[in-house]
Amino acid sequence: MFKKRTQEAKAEKDLTNDDPGDDRPRQTFWRYVIRDLNQDVPLPEWEEDEGGLSESERRDTVEKLKGRGRVVAYAEWSWKPSHWVQEMDDKDKESQSRNKDEEQDERGDTLKTPSTVNMVLITTFMKKIKALRKRLVGGKEHYSESIPFLMKAMRLSSTIRLPSTNFPPRAKPEDLSKYVDQSSDELYHWQRRQRPATSGGSEDDNNFILHDGPPYANGDLHVGHAVNKILKDIICRFQLSQGKRVEYVPGWDCHGLPIELKALEQHKKGLKDQPFPSPTEIRQIARRLAETTVERQKEQFRSWGIMADWDNAWKTMDKEFELRQLSVFLSLYSQGLITRQHKPVYWSPSTLTALAEAELEYKDDHTSTAAFVAYPLDVPEDTNASHFSGVKALIWTTTPWTLPANQAIAIREDMTYSIVESEEFGRLFIAKSRLDFVKDKAGIVFNVLEDHIPGSFLIEKGFTYRSPFDKSDIGRPIYTASFVTDSTGTGLVHCAPGHGMDDYNALRLWIKDGKVRVKAPIDDGGHFTADAMPDDPGYLHGLFIYGAGQKKVLQYLIDKKMLVHSYSLKHKYPYDWRSKKPIVIRATAQWFADVHRIKYMAIQSLEDVMFLPGTGKTRLKSFLENRSEWCISRQRAWGVPIPALYDQRTGEAVMTEQTITHIMQIIRDRGIDAWWSDPEDDPAWVHPSLLADSSPHDFRRGTDTMDVWFDSGTSWSEIMQRYGAGRDTLADLYIEGTDQHRGWFQSSLLTSIGYQTATKKIASPKAPYGALLTHGFTLDAQGKKMSKSLGNVISPLQILTGKMSGFQQQKDSGLGPDALRLWVASNDFTTDIVVSPQAVKNIHQLLHKLRTTFKMIIGNLSDFDPEHKIPVESMTFYERVLYKRLLHVENDVLAAYTNFEFHKAISRLTSYISHDFSSVFLESVKDRLYCDQLKSRTRLSALSLLLFNLETLQRLLGPICPLLVQETWAHTPPLLKDSMTHPLLKAHDETPSPPSQESTTSSYDEAWDLLMSLNSTIKPLQEKAREAKHMTSSTQSSVNINILEPEIPEHQSTTTAILLQSLLPHLPDFFVVSRFTLNTTIPSPTWLYESTISIPSSTSKIQIQVFNPAGDKCERCWRWIVGSTSQEGGAGAGVESKSTDQTPTLTSQKSIPEKILQAYEFGVPPTEKSQKQAKNKTTKQVPTSTPMSTHDQNQNRKEEKEKEKEDPQIQPSPSTPKLCNRCIDVLSSI
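The line above is the sequence of Isoleucine--tRNA ligase, mitochondrial; the predicted structure tokens follow.
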């Protein structure tokens, strides 16, 4: 089938004619023969022939066998009689039957090759391969060997069972995409189909609902999005591992100002000469922008491995969502919770709209102009005090631009006031406690005329004052207010109810009686109107309040000799969170939700909510307690319209339950854009009940839209649509940033409580969430908030790939979404999270460690048949101690997940993997895994424990690193998969409980503590030996322990001596030393280091001795060989001799079988390979006329051994093989 393109191909004729007397039929025989791959022989070239293996198939076959850690052959050819072929085929079948467990590839399937290629394990090698090949190819001697191809001797290293897997250092991009789909989308749909909606066959709800706080559909995602979405995903995945049926439907907040502003910018770029776009045009552009952004963000979220119902994701601009939102509005209106009022609201001159409190950012270094202004008092006639003559009320304000709207002055009736006199400003009325402040800030000198005037005196006498900005206004009131304090200002506060919420609330009764006006003489853009100065309308008209307008106000006061002093002041002030510009408080006609009526029910409902951190409850309650009304109207086009009509004859709003229901039906029929696109006089929008005495033309549709917090705040209705009122709590969990206490958490609570109150669907109103979690903000390495202006923004992609400033990485070192997920999980999310190059570097190193660990586990399990798994109860005490450590870790990690302490879960797993598993467990079992017989009980026990670790680590890392777990599953040998459940599908309650043990849990813990105490002493002693150049590896040392002070057994649950005796056969493995003894006298060691320690929780003191091992080093396993059991006596040696599986030993009486001496190459340990290769390059080999035969070599060895027996002083030659008993047994069994 194959033609080898070498000169040997022409040998067919020679071989065919080499024995004319043999007339038996001959044929070409093809097979794979074993050759030592450690020689790095290049692959021969092959020509593909019909029915044969292609070049790539041949290479794959060789690589699969090579990956199994066995010596593999390349294809060779020969001629021989047909009956010999049949004879060899029979032997091949027998060999294959014996080694069926060894002839499986990494997927667990038997290798399939054409029938002309026989896959054979030839485990006996001859050293004269060159001579044999010469006979086969060019010689005349008839071939009569029983095995067709005899190769050179194997290296001992080729018999070591090293880990074998093709698990890569990092996943390929194309594989990552596959793992994302498998571990996210496919997993979500699987659990929705397979997991029951009820638990245990009862009516108990088995659903876990995490309701998504919708991100805003504007721009690309930042690290804050990553923190939020990945935390949600970790929680959902953990709940899935607990057997829950997870429901997580993502959402997007699509309405509002930022998208509308982008729509306006896009309109200007495309149509520069066109007039301002209509609301319909704005909405069309905004919708396209939102849809594009949602799709882009969705793909980014999915690339992070977020498991969710992406196909049914909701958007606040969806028609069904908008109709549900209007339905909630209707319910609140029916309860009288929605009203229209003219009152002060937060207003943004930069974005021309009202704002909610949640849309404010407070800037600590805002600069204002502070001013002391003196208002002349009107003294009642019945006031006898002469010092009141000509007195002026001194007020202090940081908003001089509001003085034209002044309507009253507030004082405190329980405060004491003074009258002082200054040469420049005359008599001033000031709070006594604020005299020093005025003197210091205003810089004026005055004399105190009276300092015991109670504030109540002015209230009782009815003092008034005059404003210079409206001469028609006289007799403005002075009243008492609780917000006046003696810690700021002058003790007198200028009040403008059109520009202050406290002023409005305090003067509400005066406003109702018409004694005080709600005056706000500025327009939408923050410019004075003519109403600012009725006596001179043009004086301030059109001037910006924060610029020329305020300067002119101050100049006017100077001219009136009323401005005592002004200066610049830095203080905290609210800004529009979108435009980053200062806002104002301005009275306008707006729609409000009456929070005061429902806030106490809302606060009460929080008693049944779990908060993390606990301070979140106090924070949310404080926001609710301080709210009375919620301005829900906005002056924008991109949003859900407030369903109000306006009577064009009176300007009054027209809204009833009937009109709202009617408008909702038109929207359902025509779509919500029709509210703006239909003709203004379209009668379809007017309910027939309004036409009794009016015409459709008498009404117009309103242009206000709802606050986006009302949009997202009603998103709980999306859950209610599917579950109705059947669930005790709509959502099990809300989790967002800490800023949402005054945003989405609050709006969701208020709309839900209001809806329940209106509809009476739930007897006792409940919060829409059962638990409320908040996470911090992301900060840069200096602790600063990230912003584009500071240039410190780090994208999730930089963390995902490791490509960020200050992070030195190798080429293509990006480890994919798990790096980003691991970074999120590694931080305590209840505080602010710092993003720095060092933090990202640490995460990438940790992920490399996890990948390396899984590669080691899977590689060692490549030839493990789970049918041979050793039950935990059948393992040795030492192995049960290690298994108990694994259970401890599992319990700790599960507790951390349950408490949402993911950083503790990662910390515990990292500690276990780095120390308990890698440094202790793997190091202690490597010798057994690599050097023991394939199915020895000790090796199978170690592999069983390794399998427990694989299943546990996969399951525990699943919520945080699902792609890594999916990848490890893809590389898990199929034979193991058949006995396992996919770790991402497995519920924790499916995990078998740990078997009952004959020993108590405390004995395991005591054993572990003892091992750690010994380890903390033995390692430093070995390090001293290394520094003194007495040893290099730990196997070049032995350890002896002497118990100096025995315990009193009746006072101890497990004595140190008993524990040591139980662990003794395993201690050489645990500490990776050649020998470990107990209470043994050391005969004249070459070097020795010792230390005495006390055992924790014990009365014992023990002496630990580290010294040189006796004997030689085994050429196969590198453990040091004891030349005779008489060399080291004591208890340790006795235990050791009974456990040759655990501790390899060699006695001088056990000889090495001749077949081993012939089959393997000795005298060149693997560590000396490079030295031999270097020597071969520089040393010229002198050819011999007659090479020494194998028989002659064996005869020489026998003669050398006889000489050694006759003369003990004669040392064995360097080529004499050194093997321990265990390795002799293993090699003999091959």
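Note on the example: The mean pLDDT is 79. The radius of gyration is 44 Å.
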